[in-house]
Amino acid sequence: MKHLARFTPLLPALVLLLASPSALAFDLSEAWQAARSYNSDYAGSRADLSAGSEQAVQGRAQLLPQVALTGSYSHTNPTQPAGLAGYDSSGYGIQLSQPLFDVSKYSAYQKGKIASQQAATSFDAAEQQLMVEIARAYFDVLLAEDTLTATRASKKAYQTQLQQAKTAFDLGTATIIDTHEAQAGFDAASAKEIVALNQQEISQNNLRRLTGLDARAIQPLKEQLPPPPAGDLQSWLELATHNSLALRAAEQALQYASQTVTEKRGNQLPVVALSAGYNDNRSNQNGALPVTRGSSIGVSVNLPLFAGGGINSQIREALAKEEAARDKLESTRRQLREDVRKSWLGVTNGAALVRAQQQLLISAKSKVDSTKLGKEVGIRTNLDVLQAEQSYYDAITSLATAKYDYLTACLQLEQVAGTLNESRLQTVNAAIRH
């Protein structure tokens, strides 16, 4: 009890350490939740969304009444004719104006709405991109750990063979060739271990940069992987046509460009506005009325006749940009179909590759066992055993790579189709051991 009492003051700090997010094991879904509050790029996208939503408000404001309050005060000292006394003047007024017909302002209102929609689309795209980046970083850490584990196991096998080869050489039952072969394999495995350690550090730092979490607490995969997303290629192409964020952004860019054309053409049309006001003026000038008050209401029409050719030039510029946006939309549509095909093949072929690598791993393990048995009966050498074991460890790394590539491809297919969300992420997260 006395010894325990000495550590009592350290208990609160220990509890805080264990309860800190960096000390707790986490899965892919928890990494995503951490990134939402930690990642600065995501925070910037959220701020851009808030800023973009104001574009609709600003565009609508141009169509609403504009009210202004004015006030003035002046002191006048007459010089001619001589002898006149100075006097003060003051007044205030309130003015209201309301557009009745203004194509440019109406187009600006429409552009404001489109700009807000563009901001929402950009945010959704940034959110989906971050999901894929988190998943890729997460699986990169797991792959680095699996590679390091396989490399160290391979190194250990070479070390064992090296010791056996040296002992056999000392006893005269083996040649120096076996020792040199084992030494070369051990040195190669040592070099691979350094590379694997370096890659592990890089991948852990990248995940920490995105999420703020300690990548050493990452959760590994289960043996069973989720099935590929349902649907054939044609259904995914149709889904992407309706949901792709890249295609939606291109369509919104074309709508914005079309409204700009309307706005510039509107500069050639008359502008009609309603105006109303009230004024109250006071003066102590001799002979002048001390107080004048009055209200006014009227309609003004402004028709531009000639602007030096500037308006026509702006229209031609807007038309050219509209045509460029239309071409960009068609290019995006074609690229989308290619991206969907590529992602769909990545998923289907990825699933097939995982099954093939699993079978290869079984075969590689059988080969190791058979080669060791052959060495015992004298029909295989140490070099044969080392090569079989190296193939086995390579198969472990290849299977891990295939699994992580397949899971990432599933998310990329959802991203290309514009359907990636937290629910889809949970489907992949179900493959992680908890």
Automatic annotation (TrEMBL):
It is found in: Cell outer membrane. Residues 1-25 form the signal peptide. One of its GO terms (cellular component) is efflux pump complex. It comes from the Bacteria. Its main location: membrane. It comes from Aquitalea magnusonii. Pfam families: OEP (PF02321). Keywords: Cell outer membrane, Coiled coil, Membrane, Signal, Transmembrane, Transmembrane beta strand, Transport. This is Type I secretion outer membrane protein, TolC. Belongs to the outer membrane factor (OMF) (TC 1.B.17) family. PANTHER family: OUTER MEMBRANE PROTEIN TOLC. The keyword Membrane applies. NCBIfam families: type_I_sec_TolC. Residues 312-339 form a coiled coil. GO terms for molecular function: efflux transmembrane transporter activity; porin activity.
